[in-house]
Amino acid sequence: MQSVKDILAKYNNQPGPGPTPPAGSEPSVTCTLCQDRGIILEGDMARPCQCMQQKAMRNKFKHAGISAEMLQQTFDNFRFDYYSPLLADQARNRSYLEHAQRALQAAREFVNEYAAQGQAPGLMFMGSVGSGKTFLACAVANALTEQDKQVLFLVVPDLLDELRATFGKKYPENTEQDLLDAARTVPVLILDDLGAHNYTEWTKNRIFSIINYRMNHSLPTVITTNLDINELDTYLGERTTSRLLQMCRAFRLFVAQDIRMLKYQEREQGQGR
After folding, report:
1. Which residues lie below 8 Å from residue 181, measured CB to CB, with a gap of 6+?
2. Is residue 128 part of a domain?
3. 230-243, pLDDT tens digit by residue?
4. Do 13 and 147 have their domain in common?
5. What are the tens digits of pLDDT across the range 25-48?
6. Domain's final residue, options 14, 32, 56
7. 72: CB partners within 8 A, 6+ apart
8. How far, rounded to the nearest angstrom, does the alpha carbon of residue 4 sit from its chain's CA centroid?
9. Which of 131, 163, 206, 263 could lock 253 by a disulfide, CB 3.0 to 4.6 Å apart?
């Protein structure tokens, strides 16, 4: 435990709170643990809130973190009615609903195990577009953040764009090494949409570098992908796929229709259109 003065001195290079909201208005609080103060007060002493470290990590990336909509994606809000109990995956003789139940249970177990032990096998959610993969990944991130755990959420195409954007800049705000180190070393990394992109040898090597480091240092990673194992091998290469299988438990989600489309239809019907 440290004094408030020491905490603030250590983190004085982090962005401070925003302007005081007008009287009578309800301020928007991002971190419910510290109320956006950056420190958690315990009597006359204080400790740094995990959100300060998360902000420092996310500040390296223009497209990192959880959006306002993603904050609503929690385990309690996961809907099983999108997954048919009648349609089945013939390869494993499980219904779409059973697959969704197994994936949700695995996500909950991951959060509980990591919160209790500081380690847990990673997760890989596989399935078609709109099958709920990103929802579960966001639910994991939100549950861990609520428990003061440090999480970095990166969308793979955005990550690769930001790495490429460091080229040719004489004084980049963050170097390629800065970005790679942040993704390699964050306690929990979520890589969303590790899909069928136009990977070059350069991008394959960067992804391998992140995955390999995290495997070697037992740092848990949550992956979402619309590729199956054979396709991962084709797009990312054997060495990356092999490591993903070693470090992650894989779960597949099946839907009869894109959940985003179903939600759009529900919204339109609710508005009488």
Report:
1. none
2. yes
3. 999 999 999 999 99
4. no
5. 444 555 666 666 656 666 666 665
6. 56
7. none
8. 31
9. 131
